[in-house]
């Protein structure tokens, strides 16, 4: 009991349990009131926040390796999706019907033998061609194909080729996506190998290949994709990048049964080209162990690559007990046969950058050019002064920093193939050094041919 001096009366003191109970009641009452007022306030803002409930789910976790059922479900759903996309494409009959409608609605006069169509007839064809064709009959596409026709028309053939190209791209995208095991929009090396292996029987130009050579052919074809489209060596390529480059066009060009001999020789994916590259590898492999040593590789091409450059190849590239396999050899060949390409220059630049600084300085250039000078002495030639060559290289490249040459400088100069040839190959240096004599000789040959 306690005494209240204000009221002058005794007040019983609450027991500990009673005090705790009353505090809990107060907290419950507080929470009840807070909930009530909050719900009233939230209800008043209902019109503002209704869109929050419509936000779609945008992240779906990929199933783990042990979640077999989820993985199967994902694969099946992707297959159904790709089938649906495939059905949305124009088939041969629909393409023939489109061509018939375009030809029927052509707008005179013709330009030579080329049929034209104006925008009004273009829209009429779009209405009759069906839903699948609707996406192609837009003002944007018409304007894209409109050139200098005085009547404001476009070529029927150009438009039809545009549609064919789009259909082909979508078909190819779907075909490649079927091999995308991860379902992430890229192909791994094994995925692309499977795609090309199953493509071989559909390419008439590869009919003569023996099945025992298929694995080597597939390796040869796949390396070109990965060498140029996977510069960071991640082991995967975006399907979008495969479609954007010309390599797939070159590969599918082998469907043409009447492909000329010249086209076959310049096409990396042709049978003669693949056999040439593999034949060179076998010829270099003198001990027939399936691998190339530095000494064996030194006979590559004209046999004039410097020892210092070959040392760098075996230091930086993947080897097995100091010897390179066919896959590593393919990267080497692709780099040296395409020295104008950024990916090839990147490969060679890494070998030239002996200090791993990201640029070439006078020391780096001198280090490699000394080997060229030594080879000149061996062949009984008077060595050229390094200072002269160094000045010429910097004049050709015109780097941002006058004392350093970066990879980007080399690419931007469009002289990367010449610079690298000067530093790694005696034959390349000799060709550069005698370029004026060679040009005069070529001109004389042309003049002689004209006289005859």
From TrEMBL:
<dbReference type="GO" id="GO:0035303">
    <property type="term" value="P:regulation of dephosphorylation"/>
</dbReference>
<dbReference type="GO" id="GO:0000226">
    <property type="term" value="P:microtubule cytoskeleton organization"/>
</dbReference>
<dbReference type="InterPro" id="IPR018247">
    <property type="entry name" value="EF_Hand_1_Ca_BS"/>
</dbReference>
<dbReference type="Pfam" id="PF17958">
    <property type="entry name" value="EF-hand_13"/>
</dbReference>
<dbReference type="GO" id="GO:0043029">
    <property type="term" value="P:T cell homeostasis"/>
</dbReference>
<dbReference type="GO" id="GO:0005829">
    <property type="term" value="C:cytosol"/>
</dbReference>
<keyword id="KW-0539">Nucleus</keyword>
<dbReference type="GO" id="GO:0005929">
    <property type="term" value="C:cilium"/>
</dbReference>
<dbReference type="GO" id="GO:0002759">
    <property type="term" value="P:regulation of antimicrobial humoral response"/>
</dbReference>
<dbReference type="GO" id="GO:0045579">
    <property type="term" value="P:positive regulation of B cell differentiation"/>
</dbReference>
<keyword id="KW-0106">Calcium</keyword>
<dbReference type="GO" id="GO:0016604">
    <property type="term" value="C:nuclear body"/>
</dbReference>
<feature type="compositionally biased region" description="Polar residues">
    <location>
        <begin position="10"/>
        <end position="19"/>
    </location>
</feature>
<dbReference type="GO" id="GO:0005813">
    <property type="term" value="C:centrosome"/>
</dbReference>
<dbReference type="GO" id="GO:0005794">
    <property type="term" value="C:Golgi apparatus"/>
</dbReference>
<feature type="domain" description="PP2A regulatory subunit B'' EF-hand">
    <location>
        <begin position="181"/>
        <end position="257"/>
    </location>
</feature>
<dbReference type="GO" id="GO:0005819">
    <property type="term" value="C:spindle"/>
</dbReference>
<dbReference type="GO" id="GO:0046872">
    <property type="term" value="F:metal ion binding"/>
</dbReference>
<keyword id="KW-0677">Repeat</keyword>
<dbReference type="GO" id="GO:0015629">
    <property type="term" value="C:actin cytoskeleton"/>
</dbReference>
<protein>
    <recommendedName>
        <fullName>Serine/threonine-protein phosphatase 2A regulatory subunit B'' subunit gamma</fullName>
    </recommendedName>
</protein>
<keyword id="KW-0963">Cytoplasm</keyword>
<dbReference type="InterPro" id="IPR039865">
    <property type="entry name" value="PPP2R3C"/>
</dbReference>
<feature type="region of interest" description="Disordered">
    <location>
        <begin position="1"/>
        <end position="25"/>
    </location>
</feature>
<dbReference type="GO" id="GO:0051900">
    <property type="term" value="P:regulation of mitochondrial depolarization"/>
</dbReference>
<dbReference type="InterPro" id="IPR011992">
    <property type="entry name" value="EF-hand-dom_pair"/>
</dbReference>
<dbReference type="InterPro" id="IPR041534">
    <property type="entry name" value="EF-hand_13"/>
</dbReference>
<dbReference type="GO" id="GO:0048536">
    <property type="term" value="P:spleen development"/>
</dbReference>
<dbReference type="GO" id="GO:0030865">
    <property type="term" value="P:cortical cytoskeleton organization"/>
</dbReference>
<dbReference type="GO" id="GO:0001782">
    <property type="term" value="P:B cell homeostasis"/>
</dbReference>
<keyword id="KW-0479">Metal-binding</keyword>
């Amino acid at each position: 009991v306690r005494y209240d001096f204000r009221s002058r009366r005794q007040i019983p003191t609450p027991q500990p349990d009673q005090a705790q109970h009353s505090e809990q009641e107060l907290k419950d009452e507080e929470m009840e009131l807070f909930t009530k007022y909050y719900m009233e306030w939230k209800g008043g803002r209902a019109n503002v926040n209704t869109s929050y409930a419509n936000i779609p789910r945008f992240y779906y976790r990929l199933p783990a390796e042990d979640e077999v059922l989820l993985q199967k479900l994902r694969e099946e759903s992707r297959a159904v999706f790709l089938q649906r996309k495939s059905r949305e494409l124009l088939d041969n009959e629909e393409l023939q019907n489109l061509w018939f409608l375009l030809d029927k609605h052509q707008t005179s006069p013709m330009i030579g033998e080329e049929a034209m169509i104006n925008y009004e007839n273009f829209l009429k064809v779009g209405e009759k061609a069906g839903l699948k064709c609707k996406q192609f009959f837009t003002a944007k596409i018409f304007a894209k194909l409109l050139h200098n026709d005085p009547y404001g028309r476009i070529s029927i053939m150009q438009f039809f080729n545009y549609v064919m190209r789009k259909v082909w791209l979508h078909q190819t995208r779907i075909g490649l996506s079927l091999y995308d095991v991860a379902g992430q929009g890229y192909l791994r090396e094994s995925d692309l190998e499977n795609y090309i292996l199953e493509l071989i029987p559909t390419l008439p130009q590869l009919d003569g290949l023996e099945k025992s050579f298929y694995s080597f052919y597939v390796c040869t074809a796949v390396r070109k994709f990965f060498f140029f489209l996977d510069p960071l060596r991640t082991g995967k390529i975006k399907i979008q990048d495969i479609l954007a480059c010309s390599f797939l066009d070159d590969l599918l060009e082998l469907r043409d049964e009447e492909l000329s001999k010249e086209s076959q020789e310049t096409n990396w994916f042709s049978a003669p080209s693949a056999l040439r590259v593999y034949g060179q590898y076998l010829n270099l492999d003198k001990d027939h162990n399936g691998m190339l040593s530095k000494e064996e590789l030194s006979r590559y091409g004209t046999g004039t690559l410097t020892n210092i450059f070959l040392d760098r190849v075996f230091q930086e590239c993947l080897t097995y007990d100091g010897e390179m396999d066919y896959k590593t050899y393919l990267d080497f060949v692709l780099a040296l046969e395409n020295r104008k390409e950024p990916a090839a220059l990147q490969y060679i630049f890494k070998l030239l950058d002996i200090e791993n600084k990201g640029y070439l300085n006078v020391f780096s250039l001198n280090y490699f050019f000394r080997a060229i000078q030594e080879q000149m002495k061996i062949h009984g030639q008077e060595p050229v002064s390094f200072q002269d060559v160094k000045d010429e290289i910097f004049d050709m490249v015109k780097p941002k920093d006058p004392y350093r040459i970066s990879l980007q400088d080399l690419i931007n100069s469009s002289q990367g193939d010449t610079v690298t040839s000067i530093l790694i190959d005696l034959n390349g240096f000799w060709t550069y050094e005698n370029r004026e004599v060679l040009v005069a000789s070529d001109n004389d040959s042309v003049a002689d041919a004209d006289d005859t």
